[in-house]
Design brief:
With about 180 residues, the protein is an alpha+beta fold. It is about 35% helix and about 15% strand. Helix 1 crosses helix 2. The radius of gyration is 34 Å and the shape is elongated.
Amino acid sequence: MRTVIAFLTRFLFRSRLGLAVLLLVVVVSVVGVGQVVGRVEGTDGPLLGNPGPNPALTIDPTEGDDGIQSLPPEPDPVTAAGADAPETVAVAFATAWLDRELDPDQWHAGLRPYVTEELADKLVGVDPVVVPAERLTGEPALIAYATNLVEVVIEVDSGKLRLRLTGPDGRWLVDGVDWERG
């Protein structure tokens, strides 16, 4: 008996073939136990597969729909009396942004009336030659996120110009510029 145990121990734990056989036995055992234990009552399939209909999960057709009935209305951007609408500000900014013939200081001065202080600081020293478009090709499309936060998308000859505008006091200013290749 002792020689048999010594042989099995040496075969299983010291040879590659023995380790492969041991690993195969472990895998087959785990899969077999999973198939037996994982069955859903009243079905033939395993728990991890498609168990079929579950009578505990039925829907009463007389209860009505508990899902979302309609989406909330899109917020209306608030514009102060006498101030420009966000689309107007976005087009004015985009027109100035596309004026690549100016030197950097003139270009920056042309953008300043339409941008927040933070964006103006980020645009200091930018050379307008690097602007990746030359002309507007579409009308502005407004996406309102809140009464004081919108995004205006304008088609340009090389893609889309996406402008984030804020208007906490009803005076809209561009706060972020993004461009996506078209």
